[in-house]
Structure formats: structure tokens, C-alpha cells
Amino acid sequence: KRVAVLISGRGSNLQALLDAEQNAYEIALVISNVPNAGGLDRARAANIEALELDHKPFGKDREAFERDLNTLLTARTIEIVALAGFMRVLTPYFVRAWAGRLVNIHPSLLPKFPGINTHARALEAGDIEHGCTVHLVVEEVDSGEVLGQARMSIEPSDTAETLATRVLGLEHDLYPRCLAALASRMP
Ligand code: GRF
Predict the structure, then answer these.
(1) Residue 152 — pLDDT band, cuts 50, 70, 90?
(2) Atom of ligand 1 nearest to the CA of 107
(3) Pairwise CA distance, residues 4 & 27, whole Å
(4) Candidate list 106, 130, 135, 172, residue with the active-site label
(5) Domain range enclosing 151
(6) Ligand 1, pocket-test mutation among 7, 13, 112, 121, most atoms within 8 A of CB
(7) Across all residues in the chain, what is the average pLDDT?
(8) What CATH number is associated with residue 82?
(9) pLDDT, tens digit, for every residue of 16-34?
(10) Structural domain tally of the chain?
(11) What is d(CA 138, CA 135) in angstroms, rounded to the nearest whole number?
């Protein structure tokens, strides 16, 4: 399956998806809504087309941004869109267009802690367990069918920073496995 990865930043999950690429999926395109995002260099180093689509010129018109995004994706016959640190909320227009073929990774054990600052919130809640989730994207943010989760214990010495580091390691293992499984089960 031909996959486009959407990023906004350093792209360590993109790197994990690239490194683990197998028969089930092929990263065919990387798009960043943030110009000069570090992940674009990772894509180019792997000889993958890497595009910038800055959302700023579109102002408040999210759909106009997404229509251009969609045009880029369909022109390259993309079959799955994987969000990897993509920091834009997508509108129902885009989510419906890609229903069942749009995945995200989130640094918490959903349904716990949707949104931001997940590691600090897990600590504040006194949780003894934390982790990450790969899920299908639906209109409500950080919801949708869970494709996989990875969990770990929270130790008394943990800070938001140490949790972020360990969860990221779990993400890099989980995301390629879930993407491959989704690609394999698609017709
Ligand atoms: C990851 O923690 C991911 O779960 C979250 O944003 C971060 C992206 O990191 N949605 P990277 O750009 O993949 O390194």
C-alpha cells in the first residue's frame, strides 16, 4: 500500500516507519505543514518525495488547505495517510474522504488523555501505567478504532521528560507494526 506520512516536526516516527518498511506498505510521500520541518530531511535522505504545504497562507480556511493536501495525495495515488506528529486538526471534509485509511499515533493510552501534555497529565493523575496508541482518525480528536497500544509502568522517579522519552521508544516500535497490519487487512 502506498502511504503518505504527514508531519509537522522532527519526524522520529516517520524515521521508524521508513526503517521498518516491509512488503505491506511503502512510504511514497511525506508532507509537512511546517516549512523546514526536520522530518523533511529524513524523507529526502531516504529518496522520498518531501513537500511543504504551509497552512498559514490559507488563514482560517482549513478546508482550502485540505483540498490542496488532498489533490497532492490523490495525484500520487496514495492509499493510506499516516499522521506522525502532524499538529493540525483535520476537518470532517478530510476525515470523511479518508475514512478507514487515515491513522494517527498518540502518546497516551487512549481513551485516557486525548489532546496535549499527555505525560504531565499521566503523572498528575497518579497513574502507574502509560503508553501510546495507534488509532483510525475520526471526526472527534484522538478517538476512533484502536489499532494497537503499547504500555509501560510509570516509576516514582519519572518526570514528564523521562516518560516522553520512553513512550517515544514504544511509539517507534508500535507504529510500523500497526501500519503494516492495517495495510495487510485492506482490500
Ligand atoms: C509523538 O510523540 C507523537 O505521538 C505525537 O507527536 C510526537 C511526534 O514526534 N503525536 P516525531 O515528530 O515523530 O518525532
Answers:
(1) very high
(2) 4
(3) 6
(4) 106
(5) 2-185
(6) 13
(7) 97
(8) 3.40.50.170
(9) 999 998 899 999 999 999 9
(10) 1
(11) 9
Annotated binding site: 11-13, 62, 104
In this prediction the pTM is 0.96
Q: pLDDT tens-digit profile of 68-127?
A: 999 999 999 999 999 999 999 899 999 999 999 999 999 999 999 999 999 999 999 999
The residue contributing the CA closest to ligand 1 atom 6 is 85
Mean predicted confidence (pLDDT) in 61-69 = 97
